[in-house]
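sorry to bug you again but im stuck and you know this stuff better than me. below you get a single protein, a line of residues and a line of whole numbers that encode the local backbone shape. mainly i need to know what kind of three dimensional shape the backbone takes. anything you notice is useful, everything is just below:

***
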Amino acid sequence: MSRVIFLDIDGVLNSNFGNNGHQIEISDGTLIDEEKIKLLAYLVRETDSEIILHSGWRFWFDFELKPLCREANKLVELLEKEDLYINGVTPNLTTEEIRETKKFSLVKADEILLWIDLHNDVTEWGAR
């Protein structure tokens, strides 16, 4: 592995900004935009990258990256339509306080950097 895309889901592959209730519905899997999946597929192919899931959605997969709920299963189905696969997930550095306040941005960069430190064969990476 030499190139990696750290992928967030909410607000990247799914969004519904025209819906006032999108904060409630955004993580239910029904708003994943297949056109955005196609754009991701183009990016992955053009850069010869692998996908590392960096999203709260990573907790919906087991240690073998198998979906644990219908939302994760829907994501996998849509990715597979474009011959895309999740190749790993970033570690979890959140604390109880971060989870309660939903300030995940406080540790996102550290989680990505830790993953890179643990995988020294990465030569290039990007985050979406």
